[in-house]
Specification:
Helices cover about 40% and strands about 20% of the residues. It is of the alpha/beta class. The chain has a single domain, classed as TIM Barrel (Alpha-Beta Barrel). An eight-stranded parallel beta barrel has the order 1-2-3-6-7-8-9-12, surrounded by five helices. The protein has a two-stranded antiparallel ribbon with strand order 4-5. Strand 10 and strand 11 form a beta hairpin. The longest helix has 18 residues. The radius of gyration is 19 Å and the shape is globular.
């Protein structure tokens, strides 16, 4: 498996996720990440119709190729679109210069990766994830994964992964294919550990896990009414649970974001945590949370109070 820095940069926000991010803020976030020791940058064509890939590629241009790791994704092929409008219906504040077409075919994988390499300005990427194949298992397992494994054997890519907002289907990929890494977003956090069986499986098979969505899209950063959980308004019961976790953290002089960033590493399969940011200030705050020590007694108290499984 390609070595990943333990703290990774999630490229969704700088693809203008939900709101526009200026070039100044986007490159400030990337610079702050680099200064904090981040050397793993994750992106996807989906993120801002290629904007995230272009920004990350521009930032990394000129840096020694062996000094960083980049991952991107396949499954959505971008086709040119003409006319007015924006992409806000899909969550990104960018002009609708393209439309996404689901394609997990071998040809679609190669076309998507070729376009990603062009936007990134690279001749290879280190990790490629099969992205959100929830309704496309058959084509993903019979065409996308074999195509990526062939590209891995050719040295075009370094590792093959699957990235999803669930854990059950990634577990099938681990059991039935030769993937190197899985990226379960939001399913293994201090608030929710539904992906624990997947992580246990990965540990037994030698498959790396990259934990994403460790703030559950916002609730674990700000446990307030109106915060988001899985990109929707958080249910009151989860807000109350997050507040209970925060109260236990406070007794140990630990913030909830510190606990959220630290928790995934409690599992031996987790090699990196991806944090998406949209400014230098956010990146510095996350880097501080990442670096802060969290005492084992905190986890003991959370288990005692029924907020973590025993």
């Amino acid at each position: 498996m390609i070595p990943l820095s333990r703290l990774g940069f999630g490229g969704g926000p700088i693809g203008n996720l939900f709101t526009e991010v200026s070039d100044v803020d986007a490159f400030g976030a990337l610079e702050a990440a680099w200064d904090a020791g981040v050397r793993y940058f994750d992106t996807a064509p989906h993120y801002g119709l290629g904007l995230s890939e272009r920004r990350i590629g521009s930032f990394l241009a000129g840096r020694p190729r062996d000094s960083f790791v980049v991952s991107t994704k396949v499954g959505r092929v971008l086709e040119p679109a003409f006319g007015d409008g924006d992409d806000r219906a899909n969550g990104f504040a960018v002009p609708a210069t393209a439309w996404r077409r689901w394609d997990f075919s071998a040809d679609g994988v190669r076309r998507s990766l070729e376009s990603s390499l062009d936007r990134l300005g690279l001749d290879r990427v280190d990790v490629v994830y099969v992205h959100d194949p929830d309704s496309h298992w058959e084509q993903a397992v019979s065409e996308a994964v074999p195509a990526l494994l062939a590209l891995r054997s050719e040295g075009v890519i370094g590792a093959v992964g699957v990235g999803m907002n669930q854990w059950e289907l990634p577990a099938r990929f681990v059991r039935e294919t030769d993937v190197d890494v899985v990226l379960p977003a939001g399913r293994y956090t201090v608030l929710e550990q539904t992906a624990a069986p997947l992580l246990d499986l990965c540990a037994s098979r030698g498959v790396a896990v990259v934990a994403a969505g460790v703030f559950n899209s916002g609730l674990l950063a700000r446990p307030e009414v109106g915060s988001t959980y899985d990109y929707r308004a958080a249910p009151e019961a989860l807000v109350l649970r997050a507040r209970r976790i925060a109260a236990v953290c406070a007794r140990h002089d630990v913030t909830l974001p510190q606990a959220a960033v630290s928790f995934p590493f409690r599992h031996p399969a987790v090699v990196s945590v991806l944090l998406g940011v949209r400014s230098a200030a956010e990146m510095r705050a996350n880097a501080t949370a990442f670096a802060a020590p969290v005492p084992d007694a905190l986890w003991d108290d959370l288990r005692t109070e029924g907020l973590l499984p025993t």
